[in-house]
Amino acid sequence: MLKARGLILLGIALTVATIIASEKRYSGYKVYTVKKARNDTEYKALLELQKNFKKVDFWSDPSKRRPTDIMVSPEDLTKTEQFLSSHGLEYSVAINDVQRVVEKENVRSTRQSGMNWRDYQRLRTIHDWLDSLAAFNPQVAQTGSIGRSTEGRNLKMIKLSKNPEKKNPVIYIDGGIHAREWISPAVTTYIIGKLMSLSPQDADLLENVDWHIVPVLNPDGYEYTFNEDRLWRKSRSLHNGPNCPGVDLNRNFDFHWGEAGTNDDPCRNTYPGPYPFSEPEANSTASYLFNNRNKIRAYLTFHSYSQLWLTPYGYTEDLPSDYEELESLGLRAARALQEVYGTEYEVGAPSHILYSNSGSSRDYAKGVPGIKYSYTIELRDQGDFGFLLPPQQILSTCEETWEGVKVIARQVARERPSGPTFSDIYNSIVDRDPDDRTKVDVAGIRLR
Ligand SMILES: [Zn+2]
């Protein structure tokens, strides 16, 4: 008996040791903010840095329009600083020791106090909370799943609908596509919480709109950021063996897949996958958006950071034909958001105000199922903490973002009777190039 207990204790000790040993540490890692490139030469130097310094983690991609944040390991510090200086790139230190910031954040996130917005929450807490909301409010809330992740976790969705018989327009929201952007699931869950406890003056938000929300779309990656590596971004699939797992889910959608802003190297953070929709998380989202394209009027996907309200498109500098409507609604949302705490957002297409990216969920939602208002919202901050936004800022970020979301919802409710019909959308799709695989989607069959 004693021997057995000893073995169990040894087992527990070994497990704890393995967890601690495998957790990636960021002691001595720094985050630099490199001033925005002033000319093509500086821009090319940034691209060269990204290409050749494989271990430098670009928290934001090189851009002529905004500063670029890079995280550098202690071994690469001297080399990187020399490169920046020799190319005339001005920089400053945003975070002096990444590990210290990670630890500060983690002390709070390990507290077990149920669902709240003082701390970042584990997946289990979020999913249990969604189920309890549905259990206590069966007439309004239902939980389900749009699919399963690579590691078999539920891609849990909550549907909120007060008047199913009214056939309200739907707002589809997802969060946590990128695992390390913890503020995103905090905001998506906050939106759910607000919708379940609306004040009388906001009652219209559930009377006239239905909400389909997947708060954590990359649950494998999200759990990995708590257990192993706080700064993990991608999914956790193993297309290339164990060395470089994961795919950038927001480059994996089958709309101009693998074009601008992607990297074929599976070890990189913007690897778009071996083929479009290789990832069940992206594929399930696309199927849901496509199958419900007649009802969904807005698609909001929450990321961090940079404080941007992004319209389509990222893959091209061409703008959608209704860009002005998208921009003006985005501006109104950003204004309402700013009124709460003064947080400023920029509004526009990524190819114009940020940098190009392709195969994103936002571009897909607009380009294939033809969802009218498709936005990526890059939440706080502007690089002081980046992905490591302190827990003290969770609630204020949620509160201000909610005001922006309300503006979108009221516009969608107002436009209810108009909007494209199914045949408009069908025709816009079958007009495409016959080789375009999206045409096949109309018949419900997805080509690989
Ligand atoms: Zn992101």
UniProtKB/TrEMBL annotation:
Gene3D superfamilies: Metallocarboxypeptidase-like, Zn peptidases. The keyword Manganese does not apply. The active site is at E378 (proton donor/acceptor). Keywords: Carboxypeptidase, Disulfide bond, Hydrolase, Metal-binding, Metalloprotease, Protease, Signal, Zinc. SMART domains: Zn_pept. The keyword Oxidoreductase does not apply. Residues 119-412 form the Peptidase M14 domain. It holds the Pfam family Propep_M14. Its cofactor is Zn(2+). Residues 1-21 form the signal peptide. Belongs to the peptidase M14 family. PANTHER family: FI01817P-RELATED (PTHR11705:SF91), PROTEASE FAMILY M14 CARBOXYPEPTIDASE A,B (PTHR11705). This is Peptidase M14 domain-containing protein. It comes from Orchesella dallaii.
